[in-house]
Amino acid sequence: MKRTDPIRVYEFEKLAIGDGGFQKAHFDRLLAWNEANGFKYFTAGHKGIRFNQHVGVIQVGGLVIEVLPKADNQGKEEKWQQALLDMLAIVHDLPLTATTDSHLHKRNSTILDFFFGLYVEDVYGLVRRGLVKQYHQRQSNQRTWKGRLYWPGHLRENLIRKDRFHVVHQTYDQDHLLHALLKRALTIVSDTALDPVIQNRAQDLDWAFDEVDDSRLTKAALPRIRLGRKTASYSRAMRLACMIVQDHAPDLKGGHVPLLGLMFDMNKLFERVVLKLMRRSALAYPDLNVSGQDSRKFWEDKTIRPDIVIRRGNEVLQIIDTKWKVPKKGTPGDDDLKQMYVYNLQFGTAQSTLLYPVTEDASPLSGSYMEWDWMDPHRHGCNMAYIDLFDPLTGKVRLDACTALLTELRTHNITLRSR
What we know:
By secondary structure, the protein is of the alpha+beta class. The chain has 3 domains: 7-130 and 184-265, no CATH class; 134-173, no CATH class; 283-410, Trna Endonuclease, Chain: A, domain 1 (3-Layer(aba) Sandwich). 33% of the residues lie in helices and 24% in strands. The protein contains 11 helices and 19 strands. It has helices at residues 24-36, 77-92, 98-104, 111-129, 151-157, 177-192, 196-204, 235-246, 266-282, 334-347, 403-410; strands spanning 7-10, 14-16, 42-44, 48-51, 54-60, 63-68, 134-142, 148-149, 165-173, 248-249, 259-265, 288-292, 296-299, 302-304, 308-312, 315-322, 351-357, 365-368, 381-387. The protein has a 6-stranded mixed β-sheet with strand order 12-15-16-17-19-18, with helices on both faces. The protein has a 5-stranded mixed β-sheet with strand order 1-6-5-11-10, with helices on both faces. Helix 2 (77-92) packs across helix 9 and helix 4 crosses helix 8. The model is unreliable at 98-104 and 412-419 (pLDDT under 50).
């Protein structure tokens, strides 16, 4: 596949046939892939597609499409590419070193190159240290009896072969599911990578997995892969391999163009980054506890789950709900206010906050909910706050972005501002 410059668009933007090398063959392939994934990545029009809140990278044939986040109209594509990578690095515990940064800033290097390159480097490290052997069950037809007889296979294959036994036995070697996952991901990188350096390095590792059979690696088998004490060093390589294998679509509905899409819901990504940064800042305050997705009963078997709950002991200080959007006219939507009203009542807190990414004209706002004469008094309100998450020049995530917010909480200043 010949490499072309990547197409870069922003979330909620349209990509039309003819833009930057995007052809009808790519369009048709993406339609089939989107349909297979529940139509969740974009909506299709007559001669193009419009992306939604999902961001990331899609490689279809030799064409790479990067869908970048953008909280405002400031900054170049490189800034928002870096912002997305930093957010993914924080959420998935991926390293962003000077080497990976410089590689990413090559003329037509992409986010996919970063993931592929990082994965290959991780596997290289595992191979150098020696691949781990594991005990696992194997089914085979043998001359000697070991383990237990597997009757269905024995009757099928050995009715006239008295010298053979179809058995299930335990073996100790490198041919297990964890290595089958790594091998499958390496094969995808070898077949898909457009960077010849990454492709060659992936192919150089083939020999290490010669004895590994990846044919038994199915979607149902992936959840059975577990890491233990001996395989703890496989953690990041396994996460990357799962992402590559699960999002690879070699032949959907008779298509002949390979496709790999690593796409992430920006709303969830923003929420998880803020939660991680808040927990990081909370390490300085042992009296505060930051938790995510706390569940409370709401109606019958239905539950509510605010994004972030901040407590001091048993007292809920603050409910925070992250919103990756720019509020219209600088005011919260009715549905968002009703949602926070319910959170306040169910968790018994006096304040909740809708937390948005900072923009040029962002202005914090605080308001109180009306009291009712038919219920016990519960004075409570909802704030609008903004978090200045990215460095304005580089796009890198500011690791101390939540520090000021938590400091104000600890000193009993309930009105939160994160700028």
